[in-house]
Design brief:
The structure is a homodimer. Chain A is an all-alpha fold. Chain A contains twelve helices and two strands; from the N terminus they run ααααββαααααααα. In chain A, β1 and β2 form a beta hairpin. The longest helix of chain A has 26 residues. The first copy, chain A, starts with a helix and ends with a helix. In chain A, 59% of the residues are buried. At the A-B interface, α2, α4, α6, α7 and α8 of A face α2, α4, α6, α7 and α8 of B.
Chain lengths: 284, 284
Amino acid sequence: MSFDFDAFVAETKRWADDALAQRLPRDKADAVGAADPGRLIEAMGYAVLDGGKRMRPIVAAAACVAAGGEREAAAAGACAVELIHAYSLVHDDLPAMDDDAERRGKPTVHVAFGEANAILVGDALLTHAFAILAAETRLDPAARVASVAVLARHAGVHGMVGGQARDLALGQAIDRIELLEEVHAEKTGGLYAAAAALGAIAAGADEATVARLERWGLDFGIAFQHADDVLDDEQEPLREAAARRLAELEESCVATAESFGPERGGPLAAIARWVAARGRAVGG
Amino acid sequence: MSFDFDAFVAETKRWADDALAQRLPRDKADAVGAADPGRLIEAMGYAVLDGGKRMRPIVAAAACVAAGGEREAAAAGACAVELIHAYSLVHDDLPAMDDDAERRGKPTVHVAFGEANAILVGDALLTHAFAILAAETRLDPAARVASVAVLARHAGVHGMVGGQARDLALGQAIDRIELLEEVHAEKTGGLYAAAAALGAIAAGADEATVARLERWGLDFGIAFQHADDVLDDEQEPLREAAARRLAELEESCVATAESFGPERGGPLAAIARWVAARGRAVGG
C-alpha cells in the first residue's frame, strides 16, 4: 500500500490546528479591567487560527515519527514554531515592512486591530512560543532546554530575523545563487530546520539524529524557496541555477528520509518529493 | 558599617553592562553576504549598550544574593530580562506606538536605523533573551526551563505586553487605583517579578522562596510606578491613593527583604527604601 500524501497532510493539519487552539492564551479570570486588553488575545487567535497550511507543524510531526517518536510528543514544538511563523507574518505585513492589507483573503492584523496592536500581537506570539516549549511536561527539562535553544537560534538574528534584515538590505542586489541561497537558508530554512529538530528532540533522538533532521529541515526550506524562484520572473537570471539546486536538495532530502526506513521515513520523503514536484510543475 | 547603596548600584550596573556585552550576538564568520545584514547586530548593541540604569539586572543580582546564591549565577537571567526591557523600548518608540525620536539623548532605533529595522531589532532582542537563558550551562536544565517559563509568563500577553495593550486601550479611562495598579503590575511589575524570580532560580532556591521573591519584584515594580504617579499631574485624582499604596508596598518589600537576614537581604531592602524615598522626595 503506497503512502497517501494528501490524506497525511490533511490529517496532520487538523492535528496541528487542534494543538494550536489548545495552547493559545485565554483571558485571565481575575482581571480587574477589561478581560481582553486591546483585544490582544482575540487578535492572537485571528493571526494564528486562520487556515495556514501548517507546513512547519507537519514537518515537526514527520521528523518526530522518523526519529521513532509518537507524533503527540512533537505537539508543543509544532505549535511553537508555527507561532514564530505567525508572528513573523504579522510584523512583515506592517506598513513599515511589506505594507500588506490582506492575507489569505482576510484583512491583515494591523488593518483589523490597528498598527500598535499588531506590533504587540507579534511580540506576544513570539513570547508565547517559548512559554509553550517550557510548559511541555511531556518532555524532560533537558529536551525542553534543547527545544528553546534550537528555536531561538533559528528564529533570531542568525536565522529568520537576520534573513529578513538581509533581504531588506540587499533587495535586488541578490545576484548570485550562493547569496540567494543564504537568504533562503536564514529566512525560510531556519524555521524548517527548527521544526525538524524540535520533532527529533521530542522523539528523544540522540544529538547526531537531531543534527541530521535539522539539516533535512534546512535543505527542505531552501528547496521550498527555490521552487518559488523557478517560477519567479524577478529571479529569471538565477532560475536555471535554482532548478538545479532544487533537484540536488530533493535528492539529499529523500535520501536522508529513506535512511530512517520506509515506514518511519515515509512522510518526510513524501514531503521532499512534493516540494520538488511543485517546482517542476511550475517550471516546465 | 552601613550598606553603601550608591556604591552597590554603580558596581552592579558595571557588572550587568559587562555581562550584556559578552552575551550580545556577534557576526557570523561564515556569512556569504553582508556580515551584518541591515546593521541588525550593530542596532541591537545600540539599543542595549546605551547607559540604561540596569534596574532589572540589579534586582536579579540582589534577589540571587538574598536567596543565598553567588551574583554570577544570575548573569544570564539579568541579561535576558534586560533584553526584554530593551526590546520593549524599541517597539514602544515606534511611530505607531509612542512615536519618540529620542531616548536618553540619542536618536531612537527607528530614527537611527529605519522603522523596518527597528521592528526586526526588537524581534531579535526578544528572541535572543530566550537563547541566553537556554545557553546558561551554569544552571541545570530544570532551572533553565523554570527561567524560560517565568520570563515568558511575565513578558507576554498576561504580563508586559498585555499591560501595554491594556494601557493603550484604556488610556484616560484608568480612573481607579485598582485598575491603575493592575496596569502597573503587568506593564512594569511583570519584568521586576521576572528579574527577582530569575535571581532566585539561579541561586537554586526552593519554589516557595522563588515565589516570595517573585512577589517582592511585582510589589517593587508597582511601587516604582506609584512613585512616578505621585508626581504625575495627570494622575492627580489618584495621587493620594498612590502615595498610600507606595508606603504599604515599601513596608512589605522591606519586610520580605529583611526576612533573608541583614547581610543577604540588605541590597533588596535598600532598593525598596530607595524607591519609596524617591516617591516621597517628589511628592512632598
